[in-house]
Amino acid sequence: MLTTRDASLPPAYSETLEALSVGPLWTALHVLLPNERVTSAVPHRWRWRDLGPLLLEAARLVPIEQAERRVLVLKNPGLGGAYAVTSTLFAGLQIILPGEAAPSHHHTPAALRLVVQGRGAFTTVDGVKCAMEPGDLIITPPMRWHDHGHEGSEPVVWLDGLDIPLVRSVDASWASKMRPARPPSTSIDSSQDEFTAAGLVPRRSRYADTGYPQVRWPWATVRRALASMAAAAPADQPVALSYVNPKTGAPPLPTMGCECQWLRPGEAPRAARSTASAVYYVLEGRGESRIGDALLAWEEGDTFVAPPWHFVEHRNAAPSAPACLFQFNDEPALRALGLWGEETRA
Ligand code: 1HN
To answer: Domains along the chain?
Structure first.
C-alpha cells in the first residue's frame, strides 16, 4: 500500500481527504512514475536436480483426482509469495503418471507447455490429440478446452507457462468447471500432417478453424531447424528461432511469445534487455547467464527467469556440445499495449 499522507498539511485536511476517498498526487507521483524502470521480480534459477525428486514425491502424495492439475509453482522470490514468476507470467512444473487423467476445462488465461521428461502422455486441445515428447511445445489458447492423459509407462513432467498474473491484473481470470475428458476427435495434430515443412500450408485444412492452426511444435522439428541454421550461420550471428502461427506469422498466443536459441560451444551473444520478461528452460547443454547483476549457472532441465529491463547474457560453457535454451515471454502483450522496447549493450 502506498502511504501518501502529506505530513506538512494540517492533519484535519488529510483526514478529510481520506474520509472522502481522495489522495494527493504530489506525494505519490514518483512511485507511480519512477525515473528508472522498476520491478520487484528478481533473477532466479530453479534446478531440475532439486525439483525432479519433489515432483515424484508429489505424485506419490497427491492423488490426481484431488489435485486435478499436479503442479509445483515456481514463485519468484521477489514477488512476496505470489504465484507468479514475473509480474505478468506464471510458471510451474506438472507431473502425470501412467494411466492418470487430468480432466477437461477451459479458461481465459492462455497456456503453453514444454515437455521436460518422459514419453507417452498427451494433451488434447479442442479434440486434437497432441503427443508429448521431451522438448515439444503445446499451446492451449484462451478458452480452448484441454485435458491431459497418459498411455505410457513412466512419469511425464512438463513446464506450464500461463499469463495468469497479467490476466488477473485486469480482473479477467475465469475458468470453467472441470468435466471428464472426451475421447479425442483426431489421433494426431496438424504438425504431423499439415504443417510439416516451413513455407507450406494446407490448401484446405481438415482441422476445425479455431484461429490456431498449429498447437504443437515437435522438438525434433525445432532441433533440426536450429542445427541447420547453426551449421551455416557466421560465428557472430546468433542462432534463434521464434515459434509462430504458420498462417499469419503472429506469435503463437495473443499474450505470449516463444523462442528457442542454439548456443554453439563457447558462444556468448551480446547482452540485451527488453521491457518483456522471460522464463528460460534448458533443453540441452550447460552454461551460465548473467541477468542484471546475478550470475546463474544452468544445466539441462533447469528453469530460470529474467525480469523486465534486466540485461541478459547467455554463455555456453561446454567445450564441444551445443546448448539449447527455450524461452516464453510476454512480448506480444507488451507490444499490443505499445509498451515494448529493447536495447543491446554497447
Ligand atoms: C492449468 O489449467 C493447467 O491445464 C496447468 O494443465 C497449470 C496453472 C494455473 C491455472 C491453470 C493445465 C495451471 C492451470
So the answer is: 44-175+214-344 (2.60.120.10)
